[in-house]
Amino acid sequence: MLHITKLLSGVAVASLLMLGTAAAQTVLKSSDTHPDGYPTVEGVKYFGELIKERTAGRYSVEVYHSAQLGEEKDTIEQVRSGVIELNRVSMAPFNGTVKETIVPALPYIFRSEEHMHTVMDGPIGDQIKAAFEPAGLVALAFYDAGSRSFYNSKKPIKTVADMKGLKFRVIQSDIFVDMTAALGANATPMPYGEVYSSVETGVIDGAENNYPSYDTAKHFEVAKYFSEDQHTILPEVFVMNKAAFDKLTPEDQALFKQAAKDSVAKQRELWAKKTGESRATVEKAGAQINEVEKQGFIDAMKPVYDKHVKDDVLKKLVADVQATK
């Protein structure tokens, strides 16, 4: 009887220990506007897998894709206030909060995706990451979002003159509004989720984005003319609420940073694959893709730089990016 009692006591203790372990797990919420399977969503999921593995299950990440928690502007405020812990967002909506993000959002600041990788993976990227902390955020990683180009329902765009009078949805960013105006078109900032219906009903003529977004949001169904002006190669940023990050032990902080860094390689691999697949999908569906006379677009950007690159910090950042080989 004593043996049975001891055995039962041991089982009870083991059960209590298991309950304690389960209760100790911290679940972190992360938001993304894109659908499940999108490269940024999968990049954050991979980050979550690494965190769960490397902390032996003490932390896990729940990814809320498809704007389940709101559009980017809403979720930026949620992560800054600590309602959610993590967020994957385009760089441009941070332009009014973190001034250093203005530089990667500038039109034609990057010469290629490889140039962008070199810049954002190096000391310039570290400087931009550090600038997020006064805003209550820790920038964990920069993800790929390819090059962005204009697409519309009216006609192919081959020169700057073809832009005149067209109405485009742009990211909620003053730089994107001014860029579009400098090209002679009209900018309408609006949430990403409203683009399809707005083109369909004629509220706008088109938008600007990368191939995976053009594909997965089905924008090619209502705006079949995709013109490769490639005005920005805008990285996206994966951020964490700073108060939540500061609660981690130094060891766990290092784990989180390394897991984020490791997720970048995975996301880039997925991005390259998805870009090719998306281009093939939209072409098969009837999208008309054309190149543009890009130098005219580049030349038109001088007033945008003059307006947004004002102080010495931003001027030096621009010069450093342009000097990076």
From TrEMBL:
<dbReference type="GO" id="GO:0030246">
    <property type="term" value="F:carbohydrate binding"/>
</dbReference>
<dbReference type="InterPro" id="IPR018389">
    <property type="entry name" value="DctP_fam"/>
</dbReference>
<dbReference type="InterPro" id="IPR038404">
    <property type="entry name" value="TRAP_DctP_sf"/>
</dbReference>
<dbReference type="GO" id="GO:0055085">
    <property type="term" value="P:transmembrane transport"/>
</dbReference>
<dbReference type="InterPro" id="IPR004682">
    <property type="entry name" value="TRAP_DctP"/>
</dbReference>
<dbReference type="GO" id="GO:0030288">
    <property type="term" value="C:outer membrane-bounded periplasmic space"/>
</dbReference>
<keyword id="KW-0732">Signal</keyword>
<protein>
    <submittedName>
        <fullName>DctP family TRAP transporter solute-binding subunit</fullName>
    </submittedName>
</protein>
<dbReference type="Pfam" id="PF03480">
    <property type="entry name" value="DctP"/>
</dbReference>
<feature type="signal peptide">
    <location>
        <begin position="1"/>
        <end position="24"/>
    </location>
</feature>
